[in-house]
Amino acid sequence: MAMASIAKRKACFLTRNLSNSPSADAFKLSYSLTKFSRRFATLGSEENDVVVIGGGPGGYVAAIKAAQLGLKTTCIEKRGTLGGTCLNVGCIPSKALLHSSHMFHEAQHSFASHGVKFSSVEVDLPAMMAQKDKAVSTLTRGKNIIIATGSDVKSLPGIIIDEEKIVSSTGALALQQIPKKLVVIGAGYIGLEMGSVWARLGSEVTVVEFAPDIVPSMDGEVRKQFQRTLEKQKMKFMLKTKVVGVDTSGNGVKLTVEPASGGDQTTLEADVVLASAGRTPFTAGLGLDRIGVETDKGGRILVNERFATNVSSVYAIGDVIPGPMLAHKAEEDGVACVEFIAGKHGHVDYDKVPGVVYTHPEVASVGKTEAQVKALGVEYRVGKFPFLANSRAKAIDDAEGLLKIIAEKETDKILGVHIMAPNAGELIHEAVLALAYDATSEDISRVCHAHPTMSEALKEAAMATHDKPIHI
Ligand SMILES: Cc1cc2nc3c(=O)[nH]c(=O)nc-3n(C[C@H](O)[C@H](O)[C@H](O)COP(=O)(O)OP(=O)(O)OC[C@H]3O[C@@H](n4cnc5c(N)ncnc54)[C@H](O)[C@@H]3O)c2cc1C
Ligand SMILES: NC(=O)c1ccc[n+]([C@@H]2O[C@H](COP(=O)([O-])OP(=O)(O)OC[C@H]3O[C@@H](n4cnc5c(N)ncnc54)[C@H](O)[C@@H]3O)[C@@H](O)[C@H]2O)c1
């Protein structure tokens, strides 16, 4: 193992690929860190103010921020590269494949209507995979203790992931052939994003979901439209259904499923099964029980508002603690945690963390759903605007979706925004800012929005919330 110290002050990043031989130069340095001055040292030769375990979005951001705050910091990562799940086998490779498969789908189904014609379009899967790998490798080059060890795929009883016939998201990002039939277990973020990739490339995709709805955390009205849209894209859904048996003895996989509440069983055949029924915190090998760090029933490390565990000087951030399992939330945790350690004030409001499903169209949200507001007994108003009435969406012939705002009736304060649109993941940030500054729907409707843009839909929905929209 080798070690580099990178700092405005001093941050060391130790990376080691445990799956390979631990050779002396199994050291790699991550991207933006190279802009800091470098100094090489050996582990243990110096004392640190902060040691971060895990170099994912939570860990490496915490380490950079700690160094910026003048704390002598070491970040230890067991992989050969920094970036964690997100960069190596999560956000980045999945978005690369979503983009490539979307281009293929557009070339097949949309370009002609814009006057762009091809005689034939084919998938070159190895080239597509190489492009994804390039996206990942371009980004991965590049004693207070903070535990930032992330999460791992949740295991399902009787289902053994071999990453060939039964794959986790990691295997689904690296399939060597397009499966004819793909069964996805779990209609959450991973199931819908990876299901979309392979459906676009020609797989017959069936999603088996235990709950009555897809993405149970999504606003009900948006979710209904979203499901219809995915069905139009040929994804099939079996809701309120559970997998009770798996047989991998033949060429493919046979799955026995039955209604979630019990009843008649049916068999589904698949070439590949994607297990995407959630992720669990990863703390194996840390010896948390030996030092007495408290966890909840699901194994998540319990922390207070300063990200401190019950053990003095031990902190935890990211997927390994309760809260949304998202890369940007892990980054915010990391920054706030080291701000506290440095004697400053940090803050993350989990109610204002945006979530985005990167399908086409994308679905993005921030704040509360209508069902959550109702359950709180708060009186509210809803304003909606369909993208069919938005001139930019019509101009690009990509107008499926809606924008929905929920505001408190008495104060007009915005409580939640839910968007289904081609670029919802970008549009949502105006809404995030509005929530962060306690804006009202009238505030948004009085802000000038450029024309023609998709963002005008937010202004129109805001008008619809407290008054009337102009263009519908
Ligand atoms: C397929 C997929 C797609 C995703 N897409 C998105 C997305 O688009 N947007 C989004 O916001 N989120 C996405 N996520 C979720 C996102 O990846 C996680 O929320 C994020 O990576 C969590 O960051 P983290 O730093 O807490 O943990 P991780 O990124 O999991 O990093 C933890 C690191 O700790 C290391 N580690 C573990 N134990 C030890 C140890 N004992 N010693 C040293 N190192 C250790 C691990 O090797 C790992 O590198 C996706 C996840 C998956 C699986
Ligand atoms: N775009 C993104 O931000 C993005 C993308 C991928 C992953 N992620 C993160 O990764 C995490 C894991 O993703 P995920 O899709 O695995 O989990 P998820 O929690 O998003 O969805 C899991 C789904 O599986 C269902 N389920 C649970 N047990 C089941 C069973 N036995 N049979 C059938 N269905 C079952 C749940 O009801 C749920 O709908 C998520 O928390 C998400 O935050 C985020």
UniProtKB/TrEMBL annotation:
Enzyme kind, highest EC tier: oxidoreductase
Keywords on record: Disulfide bond, FAD, Flavoprotein, NAD, Oxidoreductase, Redox-active center
Native source organism of the sequence: Populus tomentosa
Single Gene Ontology MF annotation: dihydrolipoyl dehydrogenase (NADH) activity
Alphabetical list of InterPro entries matching this protein: Class-I_Pyr_Nuc-Dis_Oxidored, FAD/NAD-binding_dom, Pyr_nuc-diS_OxRdtase, Pyr_nucl-diS_OxRdtase_dimer, Pyr_OxRdtase_I_AS
Pfam family, one: Pyr_redox_2
GO BP terms: 2-oxoglutarate metabolic process; cellular respiration
GO cellular component term, pick one: pyruvate dehydrogenase complex
All copies of domain Pyridine nucleotide-disulphide oxidoreductase dimerisation, residue ranges: 353-462
Protein name: dihydrolipoyl dehydrogenase
Lineage, opening ranks: Eukaryota, Viridiplantae, Streptophyta, Embryophyta, Tracheophyta
Domain FAD/NAD(P)-binding: start-end pairs: 49-334
Cofactor(s) the protein needs: FAD
